[in-house]
Amino acid sequence: MLRIEHSVELKNKTTIRLGGCAPYYAAIRSKEDLLDFAEQEPNMNLPFRILGGGSNLIIADASIHKELPFGVLDIDISDIEEIQPFKPSEAEFLPPLVQKKLQEGHKNFTKVTVGAGYKIPKLLQLCKANGFTGLEGLAGIPCRTGGTVAMNAGAFGTEINDVLYETEIFSKKTGLRKFSRNAMRGEYRKMHFQCGEKETEDGIILSASFIFPAVNAEEVQNKIRENYFRKKNTQPLQAFTAGCVFKNPENENGGKISAGLLLDKAGMKNTQVNAMRFSPVHASFLENTGNGTTKDALELLALAKDKVLTLFNIQLEEEVKIWI
Ligand SMILES: Cc1cc2nc3c(=O)[nH]c(=O)nc-3n(C[C@H](O)[C@H](O)[C@H](O)COP(=O)(O)OP(=O)(O)OC[C@H]3O[C@@H](n4cnc5c(N)ncnc54)[C@H](O)[C@@H]3O)c2cc1C
């Protein structure tokens, strides 16, 4: 039977260490847990939010609410369900990287299915050991599979959509359901799930399958190491942050402008409100240097948006999800 806890502090469940007291909290470790929760949910009287690794979240704390106006479902199903050879000829729809590799004459592919709570650093270990290519850009990101799919996270020209093949999702309307490749569309920091004519907005990702082209293991190891050091040299990986807080805005040609560069030019690096500051290393990373509060974080976000709008006439949009 699923245990639902009450009055749970969320601060240590986020990488930026911001978050107050959730009226209810349930750690979902299996599909049965989730079905159990779905039965109990109507008695909760408050909506819930879906928590993954907490690496892209700013959650209200006591500086905003005594108690949060929502409960939290922590999706922590962290098993490997399947690793097996994959024949692209037997599939109707394929992820973009698999299509590209097939055109290049590549023949060796593997399907890997993991629970939504499976940590991306662990998935990269698996990729390193077996020479599975496609996710090397995610090196150094402390997230889980479910959150990474939901956000279509990526870096250095790659994103999880490149190798995503199938997801299993629960939603109140559709129940438990598999989404195959043709029902999923990855855009910049968002994955869309199409269910018939409509998009599934409130879906809880329970597992994800990836198709990895298998290459030389050393090649994958080198790429992961290179990407990790590239990040480590330009981003505050050891600080309490939520990654880049703003999306990179589009220029007139549909390309991207670096939000970090705009914020740097606007003088935001090292700008501080109490214990929250924009990182001196990368201007799009907000850091909690100690006892920072959500109120301070929101003040800094508003200040940064205001400055960039005034100086460059560009409206920045948050990449980080704000739960108020
Ligand atoms: C040091 C650092 C570096 C980072 N670098 C990058 C980077 O290079 N590229 C990049 O894209 N991001 C980066 N990020 C941001 C972050 O890691 C990604 O957005 C990641 O995908 C969030 O995953 P998570 O599991 O932590 O999700 P969370 O932060 O817990 O949640 C993020 C969103 O996903 C939803 N969600 C989570 N799990 C599920 C689920 N099972 N089903 C449905 N929805 C779910 C949540 O409701 C929320 O809306 C970085 C963060 C840090 C701290």
Supply the CATH class of the largest domain: Alpha Beta
**Secondary-structure element order, N to C:** EEHEEEEHEHHEEEEEEEEHHEEEHE
**Number of separate structural domains:** 3
Radius of gyration: 20 Å
**Average of pLDDT:** 96
Spatial strand order of the main sheet: 6-7-15-10-11
Distance linking N and C termini: 30 Å
**Major sheet details:** 5 strands, antiparallel
Q: Supply the number of helical segments.
A: 7
Look up the CATH topology of the largest domain: Uridine Diphospho-n-acetylenolpyruvylglucosamine Reductase, domain 3
Tell me the structural class: alpha+beta
Number of strands: 19
Estimated share of beta-strand residues: 25-35%
Helix content: 10-25%
Write down the overall geometry: globular
Low-confidence parts: none
Features:
Uridine Diphospho-n-acetylenolpyruvylglucosamine Reductase, domain 1, 19 strands, globular, 5-stranded antiparallel beta sheet, 324 residues, Uridine Diphospho-n-acetylenolpyruvylglucosamine Reductase, domain 3, 25% helix, 7 helices, 3 domains, Uridine Diphospho-n-acetylenolpyruvylglucosamine Reductase, domain 2, 4-stranded mixed beta sheet, alpha+beta
